[in-house]
Structure formats: structure tokens, C-alpha cells
Design a protein that fits this description.
With about 230 residues, the chain is mostly beta strands. It has 2 helices and 11 strands, in the order H-E-E-E-E-E-E-E-E-E-E-E-H.
């Protein structure tokens, strides 16, 4: 536990100083497993900057276990983004995801490929990897610590702009994430993470993010099952 805390603090202090802005991300949601192959989940997320909600969105997800090591999923979001004038602009966004994962003892390694599309594009001449069409590649490594509630992970995500033209066919942004899952007793799951969001071709390229996620398992509530871990 001490090593996790030290690593987390080192990462946060080292990279937050070079960031041009700070954001606090949070999400809360529920999940339900229909059967061994089909899962549903829903959540509500908010992203704050300068004590104001910069982005808020509900999300619905359906996931299908195609193979033992591969999941396919579709996400729908209605994203409200706060502009500089204080108004919120809405956009419908859909993500198509493929995730492959394998385990070696307590070590897990995975790759997620995401194609995102939105009903609202960026302004003329400006590409926004959060709202415009994008291909995203996210390799991730995690470790389930024995007799502990902690499962730390590290990942890097590449945002590729597939559009043709001046800003197209190149990696536009990268995200570096260090976090840990907290597997507590009962149906509750928590995750805490720090993240560097780096836009490669931007005048203010980096922002530091501190995030918290919560998810409630409806299956555990209905069946009375629980996950157990120790500090």
C-alpha cells in the first residue's frame, strides 16, 4: 500500500507542475450482467475546471463477450460542453469499442481500440479530438495485489485523427494514466486515477486530471454476493 501511495504522489507532483490547467473528473454509475456474455451499464460523469462544470454527460453502454479474451461494446453519450461565454453546447457521441485482454498470474495486459463519432464537429478549421471523429488506441497493464483491495494500472492512449486535410492522418493527442481500482466488500467499486492529457498541436497542450469513479453492481445486490479485500 505504501509503495502505491508513493508512486501515485510522485506521478502527480512530477507532472502537475508542467500542466497548463487542472481538472477534476468524477463519475457514478451502475452495471448489470444479463448473462455470461451481455452486460449493461449506465453512468453520469462531470468534469470540473476552475470550480465550474466544464463537461457533463450521461452514458449508456452495452458490452458483449465475443471470446474469452475479447469484448465488443457500444457507448452512447449526450455531452454538454461549457463554452467560454458560459453557455453549454450539446452533442450526441457514439463509441464503438473492441478490447482484448490476457492474464499472466496476477498481471493483466489489454488493448482497447475505439472509434468515436459525434453529431457535432469542431469549429471550421479546428479539430477537437474529444468531439470529432477519432480512432483511439489504449494499451494498459494492471496488477492485482494479493490479499489487497488495490489493483494498480498504467496506460497510454493515442488519439488519431482519421480525417483528410490539413489536420488529418496524424496522432493529435495522448493521455497518460496511473490509477488503482479499490475492490471493497459488497457491490461497490471505486477507482482513483491521475492523468496527463497532452494535445500535441495546441498552444496550451497539457492538463493535469484527478479522477474518481464509482460503480454499483446490481447483480451483487440481487444475489447478495460481495467482493472481499484487505488493506
Amino acid at each position: 500500500m505504501r509503495l502505491i501511495v508513493i508512486t501515485f504522489l510522485f506521478f502527480s507532483i512530477s507532472f502537475s507542475g508542467s500542466a497548463q490547467s487542472f481538472e477534476l473528473w468524477s463519475s457514478a454509475g451502475v452495471k448489470y450482467k444479463i448473462n455470461k456474455k451481455i452486460h449493461f451499464s449506465g453512468s453520469f460523469s462531470s468534469r470540473f475546471r476552475d470550480f465550474k462544470a466544464k463537461t457533463i454527460f450521461p452514458e449508456l453502454t452495452v458490452k458483449y463477450k465475443a471470446l474469452k479474451w475479447m469484448h465488443l461494446s457500444v457507448d452512447y453519450r449526450f455531452v454538454s460542453k461549457r463554452e467560454n461565454n458560459g453557455n453549454y453546447n450539446g452533442a450526441n457521441r457514439i463509441n464503438f469499442n473492441t478490447k482484448v485482454k490476457n492474464n499472466w498470474d496476477r498481471l493483466s495486459y489489454a488493448m482497447r481500440i475505439r472509434y468515436q463519432m459525434s453529431a457535432e464537429a469542431g469549429t471550421l478549421g479546428t479539430y477537437n479530438s474529444d468531439f470529432d471523429r477519432a480512432l483511439r488506441f489504449k494499451p494498459e497493464v494492471s496488477y492485482d495485489i494479493k490479499k489487497s483491495i488495490f489493483a494498480p494500472s498504467i496506460s497510454v492512449e493515442f488519439f488519431y485523427n482519421p480525417n483528410s486535410g490539413l489536420y488529418g492522418n496524424r496522432i493529435d493527442k495522448m493521455r497518460y494514466t496511473l490509477g488503482t481500482d479499490l475492490e471493497l466488500d459488497g457491490p461497490h467499486s471505486f477507482r482513483i486515477f491521475t492523468r496527463i492529457d497532452h494535445k500535441i498541436y495546441d498552444n496550451n497542450p497539457s492538463k493535469f486530471i484527478l479522477g474518481f469513479d464509482y460503480q454499483l453492481s446490481l447483480n451483487d445486490i440481487l444475489s447478495g454476493n460481495s467482493k472481499k479485500g484487505e488493506l
